[in-house]
Amino acid sequence: MAAEWIDAEGFAERRLTGMILDLHNRKRERFSGDRTIHEFSRRILIERQDVIAAYTEGMTTLIERVIAQGAASGELEVDDVGQATGSVRDAVTIFLHPQFVGQASNGGTVTQERLRAVIATIHRPTAAARVSPSGRRTGLSSS
């Protein structure tokens, strides 16, 4: 599901936000009120570090591809793609980690608005980013 956003149309900010929101929403559905899933996730975190490492590596690769595409197109002003990728990955972990997603599902403080704010905070639009592929000026925060 997340990989679909890599080659999707649109700006990197929108694709990155869409990817993380899709994953967040899917996990909210999965973890909403299901103690068995929470226990299973906790056991994986403790007993299967190899699974966690593989998942983290996969997510890092997807995030890096979107950031690299945005940097290459001039949409994102990034000095170091690897460093930016790590920062984004770390910043969005709260929206994807089973424990935090579970809290959000139970009326916690993690919300889609906060996720959008995180992505908007780390995004620094350049002049090229404010022009759509058709040449029309556009705002990046609108969907």
Keywords for this structure?
disordered C terminus; Tetracycline Repressor, domain 2; 143 residues; globular; 62% helix; 0% strand; mainly alpha
Number of E-state strands: 0
The count of domains is: 1
Tell me, rounded to a whole number, the average pLDDT.
76
The percent range for helix content is 55-70%
| Major sheet attributes | none
Give the CATH class. Mainly Alpha
SSE pattern: HHHHHH
What's the shape?
globular
Outline the low-pLDDT stretches.
136-143
Strand content: under 5%
User: In the CATH classification, which architecture applies?
Assistant: Orthogonal Bundle
Number of helices: 6
**Which class of secondary structure composition applies to the elements?**
mainly alpha
Cα separation of the termini: 19 Å
CATH topology: Tetracycline Repressor, domain 2
Structural features, described:
It is built from six helices and no strands. Helix content is 62%, strand content 0%. The chain has one domain: Tetracycline Repressor, domain 2, CATH 1.10.357. By secondary structure, it is mainly α.
Write the layout of secondary structure elements.
Layout: H1 12-31, H2 35-47, H3 49-73, H4 81-92, H5 98-105, H6 112-122
Q: Brief description of this entry?
A:
The protein has about 140 residues and is mainly alpha-helical. The chain has six helices and no strands.
